[in-house]
Specification:
six-stranded mixed β-sheet, alpha/beta, globular, binds adenosine-5'-triphosphate, four-stranded antiparallel β-sheet, 39% helix, single chain
Length: 302
């Protein structure tokens, strides 16, 4: 077995309360680069607001929006890589391209050395993604939803349930909550369950698209601690988009700032602060984008 895979197997075995299924260990290549994007572009056509028939959706006048514009970057294996940017800057599009949910118009993306266009099926086995709009069977409990996900990935029922309970407990969800219908719980709690679901299979690449947006401070801390724990104990690479600068600073090894689809800065949080000659990431963001961070947050809450 290649060295990197052995390390992954050992860590997964060490850290999960219940033994991992062999399906937990996708056969990724022995490479130190998790993701390599080269000159990636993606554009969309959007209805022009105010044009005569823009309310008619696809029948109305359209304009091209360059959501991702010649993005080149490398994400190293095992790091938490942050993507920060104002609303509509292209963060989610970039994540969806990396996770094979969208095809690039041009440029290439490789995940563990495999091209996302040619090897999308294989790559999907390595990835799990958490987005702000996670969908569930709302009449079922968190455990039932997670058991269902575990079955899809081939985990035996009992093992799936044990693992679900272990992760939910780590995320601060009591047993009684874990067994009551999801529709009776807050959005924050449902978001935690979405994160638990993404971690059920110990994926090697975890895409966290604003995982703590809308969570109360305690839930946010639980999730952040768990993400840090996963990083420390698993051979998992994570891409994190967030609007929380403290979170980016606390969790991310490196951060890319994206604006209008372009990467305009990329470094460690400390490196970015040094480049901008400031001691706050908010200020770094302002220096590079010209956009005040408070404006981004106000825009988000609208
Ligand atoms: N499916 C789509 N159809 C049309 N336009 C889209 C589509 N997806 C994204 N866009 C546009 O692409 C641009 C980038 O959107 P994206 O969702 O990637 O930004 P974001 O940085 O994730 O924003 P936010 O922080 O608000 O989630 C925006 O102008 C958005 O309206």
């Amino acid at each position: 077995m290649p060295k990197m895979l052995e390390k992954h197997a050992e860590k997964a075995a060490e850290t999960t309360v219940c033994p991992s299924s062999p399906l937990d260990l996708p056969q990724v290549s022995d490479t130190d680069i998790a993701i390599c994007c080269e000159a990636v572009c993606k554009s969309f056509f959007e209805p022009v607001e105010g044009s005569r028939s823009w309310r008619n959706g696809f029948l109305g006048e359209k304009k091209r929006v360059q959501a991702v514009d010649h993005v080149s970057l490398e994400v190293r294996r095992g790091e938490i890589f942050g993507v920060l940017g104002p609303n509509g800057s292209g963060k989610s599009t970039l994540i969806r391209l990396m996770s094979t949910l969208l095809l690039p118009d041009s440029g290439t993306i490789q995940v563990f050395g495999k091209d996302v266009v040619q090897h999308h099926y294989e790559i999907r086995h390595w990835i799990n993604r958490v987005s702000v709009e996670a969908s569930f069977f709302k009449k079922l409990s968190a455990v039932e939803n997670l058991r269902y996900a575990a079955r899809i990935y081939g985990l035996p029922v009992k093992q799936g349930e044990e693992k679900a309970l272990h992760i939910l407990k780590r995320l601060g969800i009591s047993k009684s909550k874990a067994y009551s219908p999801l529709e009776t719980h807050s959005r924050g709690m449902q978001q935690k369950v979405a994160i638990a679901r993404a971690l059920m299979t110990t994926p090697v690449l975890i895409l966290l698209d604003e995982p703590t947006t809308g969570l109360d401070p305690k839930s946010k801390r639980d999730v952040q601690q768990y993400v840090a724990e996963v990083k420390a104990t698993h051979d998992a690479t994570m891409i994190l988009t967030t609007h929380d600068m403290d979170e980016a600073e606390k969790l991310c090894d490196r951060v890319a700032i994206i604006d209008r689809g372009k990467i305009i800065a990329l470094d460690t949080p400390q490196g970015l602060k040094e480049q901008a000659g400031t001691d706050s990431l908010e200020e770094v963001f302002f220096r590079f984008t010209g956009v005040d961070w408070e404006e981004v947050l106000a825009d988000e809450s609208r």
